[in-house]
Amino acid sequence: MGARLSMLRESMGITPEKIVEELEISLSDYMLYEAGEKDFSFSFLYNVAGILGVDVLDIISGETPKLSLCCVVRDGGGYDINRRKAYDYKHLAYTFRNKKAEPFLVTVEPNDDTTPERHSHDGQEFNYMVSGSMKFFIGDMVYTLGEGDSVYFDSSVPHAMKADGDIPAKFLAIVMK
To answer: What tens-digit pLDDT sequence spans the chain (177 residues)?
Structure first.
């Protein structure tokens, strides 16, 4: 993914300095992403895609979505995005172009982290709990969400999710631009 990001950025004539200025991160951290030495958060990918003016799937898969009428994903399907150990993402509209929202089925594995690293990105987000239970961290607040619960929030506020208990938490996440 780092190599694709570097290639996209260079082909558009955008410097790493321009990207880090927009993202408000250090140049050394950014270069670790491009070198494939640092794990990508969804927030990072989403924000970089916005700066480059491409679909987030262009960076993740190297393929540009082509469908404009509808995108059907069968049970168990979706484009796997396994960028970090704690989260498993399945993109549920990976073939649809010009999306106004990014839908994901996210599985958060139980781990021992007391508080996961928080990330932010432009827009708003809706999460609906499918199974399990999770702690949702946003700002100074922590909410426990169980099956059937949902949360809608300003995703520019740093946030994170953590499985609550010994089983994975699974939720539908819809990220809106």
So the answer is: 888 888 888 888 899 999 999 988 999 999 998 998 888 888 888 889 889 988 888 888 887 778 778 888 899 998 888 756 678 889 999 888 889 999 999 999 998 777 788 989 989 999 999 999 999 999 999 999 999 999 999 999 999 999 999 999 999 999 998
CATH number for the domain formed by residue range(s) 2-60: 1.10.260.40
Pick the CATH number of 79-176 from 3.40.50.300, 3.30.300.130, 3.30.450.20, 2.60.120.10: 2.60.120.10
Neighbours of 88 (CB within 10 A): 18
Contact by Cβ (8 Å): 58, 98: no
Tokens 């491009």, located at residue: 34
Q: 176 has which bridge partners?
A: 101, 124
- Structure tokens, 112: 């021992």
Q: Please report, for the chain, the start and end positions of each structural domain, with discontinuous segments joined by +.
A: 2-60, 79-176
pTM of the model: 0.75
Angle in degrees, CA 153, 156, 159, rounded to 5? 65
Q: Which are the contacts of 110, defined by CB distance < 8 A and separation ≥ 6?
A: 163, 165, 166, 167, 168
The total of other beta-carbon atoms located within 10 Å of residue 75's CB is 5
